Amino acid sequence: MVSRRKASPPAPGTRDRILTAAMEEFAARGFDGAKVDRIAQRARVNKAMLYYHFHNKAALFLEILRGQFGAVADAVASVRSAGGSPEHQLLSFTETIARQALARPQFPHMWLREIADGGRHVDASVIGEFRRVLATLGAILADGQRTGDFVKADPFIVQISIVAPLMFFAASAPLRERAGKLIPPKPPSPSLEDVIQHVQASVLSVLSGNATTSRAPKLRRPSR
Amino acid sequence: MVSRRKASPPAPGTRDRILTAAMEEFAARGFDGAKVDRIAQRARVNKAMLYYHFHNKAALFLEILRGQFGAVADAVASVRSAGGSPEHQLLSFTETIARQALARPQFPHMWLREIADGGRHVDASVIGEFRRVLATLGAILADGQRTGDFVKADPFIVQISIVAPLMFFAASAPLRERAGKLIPPKPPSPSLEDVIQHVQASVLSVLSGNATTSRAPKLRRPSR
DNA sequence: GTCTATATTTTGATAGAC
DNA sequence: GTCTATCAAAATATAGAC
Question: Residue A203, Cβ neighbours under 10 Å: how many?
Fold first, then answer.
């Protein structure tokens, strides 16, 4: 008899319902656009209940952010520990990020928003998860350079080259939908598979150094 | 004497000050996070003045969105009309997007936000500017395919492969700054030049088809 | 743990004088 | 064109009963 005895049963997942509802609301509207009332409604609880489980709106938001980034960082880390050639790990890294975006549709939106907000709502723990992802990729790249498979490249640049297109694509579905309605006809959207393949081909080809060795001698020239 | 005679001089750029202030506020905080009071303060006018020049918050926001996207679409269009080989135009396209992000620091933030918001604040005119950019790139790619310089590729995918990393990088500066403070030391950020070069090398190499012709026979395999 | 009612603050927007 | 004063509607958060 640790505690609990009397005073209403432990709630059949009330807290989780709130988390889910909040996740959707925050992803769709952002921190300021999200309304506590709406979150409570979606979760089928009342505001008081929400404030019983979470200190305030910001704390609720932070908990969700931490959860999302943590899960992604975990998934990515498992790619590395699964082993394989640097090339294999690099392709897996890419695919994993994409799969996470599918598994957590709110994740791309929240990532874009946090960037746009300058990280106003993140704390050290979220930054930590963020860095874990980058560290994993950095290790993969270092391996590849050691084996001679990859040319030298800045991990951060490689990371945004992989992640940014995937996030853009995943998050922009609603916008493309709306665009199609505002100015029909809606141009056909490529599949996530196609995007993944393109991104994989891009990274692999630059890192393989067969970029433009022969042709296009003066890259980055067209300054005017 | 068309009109104006009496009733205060035409205002030394009051309207422009409001537009500038609003641009900064909207970019930094988003539509919901931006406060009319703060915009008025920054512009050194009062709310009534703001509502004299613009119908409401949404209209002000829309005017800014239109302006930003329109300017970028113009810049990109001029790249194409300047002519040159498909390769040259493709590199120029990339550089121009990056230069626009520098010239209009608010642009990347607003682009990210509109994607995350599902285009809730855009209207047909904004979509139109958006499509102009894509159409320009599409034309460049078509040229390149005709001349045999480029392999076939979905313009939209190519576009996000170019634009997304640039926007991510440009917009994430404040977040990286904050991250460095939360968990020192702040890892050194690559320069925009480096990012541009990497993106240019990537696109060119995939479109040149020398991606992974020889090695890595089974792209996209690491499904598990 | 859960709900109703309510306090408090913030915010978008306008009236009306100059 | 510009400003002061102010309204009315949201929205965050809490008190207190059950």
Answer: 25
B223 inside 8 A of chain A by CB: yes
Q: Are B91 and B200 in contact (CB under 8 A)?
A: yes
Select the residue from B112, B137, B191 to test the A interface by mutation, using most A Cβ atoms within 10 A: B112
Identify the DSSP state of A158: H
d(CA B97, CA B93): 6
Euclidean distance between CA atoms B192 and B105, whole angstroms:
13
Residue B123 CB neighbours (<10 A): 14
Residues of B in contact with A178 (CB under 8 A): 118-120, 122
Q: Which of A9-18, A208-217, B129-138, B169-178 has the lowest mean pLDDT?
A: A208-217
Per the structure, the residue whose CA is closest to nucleotide C2 at C1' is A49
For residue B162, the tally of other CB atoms under 10 A from its CB is 23
**pTM, to two decimals:** 0.93
Our CA-based measurement puts residue A142 at a distance from the nearest CA of chain B, in whole angstroms, of 17
Task: Specify the amino acid at residue B125.
Answer: S
Residue A209's pLDDT band (boundaries 50, 70, 90)? confident
B220/A197 CB distance under 8 A: yes
Contact A21, A42 (CB under 8 A): yes
Mean pLDDT of A91-103: 98
Closest nucleotide C1' to the C-alpha of B10: D1
Peptide bond into A185 cis (omega under 30): yes
Chain B residues touching residue A223 (CB < 8 angstroms): 95
Q: Which chain B positions have a beta carbon within 8 Å of A215's beta carbon?
A: 87, 208
Q: How far does the CA of residue B58 sit from the closest CA of chain A (Å)? A: 14
Arithmetic mean of pLDDT, B66-94 = 98
Q: What are the structure tokens assigned to B80, written together?
A: 């194409």
In chain A, which residue ranges form alpha helices assigned H by DSSP?
Answer: 14-33, 36-43, 47-53, 57-81, 86-103, 106-116, 124-147, 155-171, 173-182, 192-207
Say which of A130, A153, A204 has its CB closest to residue B179.
A130
- For A204, phi then psi, to 5°, come to -60, -40
* Cβ atoms within 10 Å, residue B6: 5
Domains of chain A from N-terminus onward:
62-207 (1.10.357.10)
Which two structure tokens, joined as six digits, stand for B18?
């409001």
Please check the confidence at residue B123 and state whether its pLDDT lies above 80.
yes
Tell me which of A53 and A6 has the higher pLDDT.
A53
